[in-house]
Here is the input.
Amino acid sequence: MEATYAVDENRLTDFMGQITNDLGGAYSVAMVKLGDELGLYRALRDDGPATAAELAARTDCDQRYLEEWLAHQAASNYLSYESGSGRFRLPPEQALVFAEEDSPVYMIGGFENAISTIENQPGVAAAFRTGGGVAWGDQASCMFCAVARFFRPGYLHNLVQHWLPALDGVVEKLERGALVADVGCGHGHSTLIMAKAFPNSTFIGFDFHAESIAAANEHRDAHGIDPERVRFEVAPADGFAGGPYDLVACFDALHDMGNPAGTAARVRDRLKADGTWMVVEPNSGDRIEDNLNPVGRLFYAGSTMICVPTALAQGHGTALGGQAGQARLTEVFRSGGFSSVQRAAETPFNMVLEVRP
Ligand SMILES: C[S@@+](CC[C@H](N)C(=O)[O-])C[C@H]1O[C@@H](n2cnc3c(N)ncnc32)[C@H](O)[C@@H]1O
Here is the structure.
């Protein structure tokens, strides 16, 4: 039997326009990765506009491939094209996104995360059937690096400048000399940024993923920071040691933990009575309707492919998801014995919660 649909031609045209854009973005993921990995963006930033032949000479890449890549980048508004000279230019705004690792809008980590979600897809598809998880350590090969690279610019430009000062009395303690735990620290960028800013304080980063802890210790050594003052240890969030701490921080990690209530109880147990738990989470509203926007779209995809599988793999049957919202997170804090929860700061991507006993 032939199905009949009441199709509105204008809506269909609009939707196909959206899908063409979406597919264009999806195909750009591999193209941006090429530009980063082969040093093409950096070569255009450092030595200015180039034809394909000039860029081939600068980067030791094949001219024919570069002709195609450059045309794609110009069609994407990632490069501009000067038709008279046949040169392609990396505009300054695009350079901040693709070539400046310390810029607040550096997005290469976001593209690398998109690659991770594609690599993770077979494992996650199997988990959809079973309701099981995909362990953090079993996910895409460079996902840990991608995640660290994605979050670092936000920490670099907000943590010391805006987020810590928004917490009552915390900067004064850090300046005098405080004991700090960074739980779920991953590659330790957040820990090292704080450690550099507050040389009188001592920092311990904890994560249950041994490879990430090894990378964090390497980063610490590369920055020449005293291992007596900053160290990284393998430990689960609901069983980390030491303290009593003046400050415990969790950066984009609580929602990945399979036992967030156990983590809250552990933090409460290890925190000084006047201590602070700083919880940085994806910025989201409490209702699905609040998150149906471009940022929510990115986070729900990351949550489906990375965060929920990570949490469910831990065997507690809980997965907060990357868009848990402040109300759901507050239930977790209260279950751990915390009574005060304030939104201290936010960016389009993150909210910073001040959680106190
Ligand atoms: C999205 S990453 C964020 C890493 C880091 N805080 C950052 O912002 O770059 C989440 C981190 O939580 C860690 N994690 C997840 N569950 C954990 C658990 N139960 N105990 C300790 N770490 C955990 C993962 O290994 C991972 O490093």
About this structure: The domain at 108-356 is CATH 3.40.50.150 (Rossmann fold). The chain has a mean pLDDT of 95. The first strand starts at residue 80 and ends at 82.
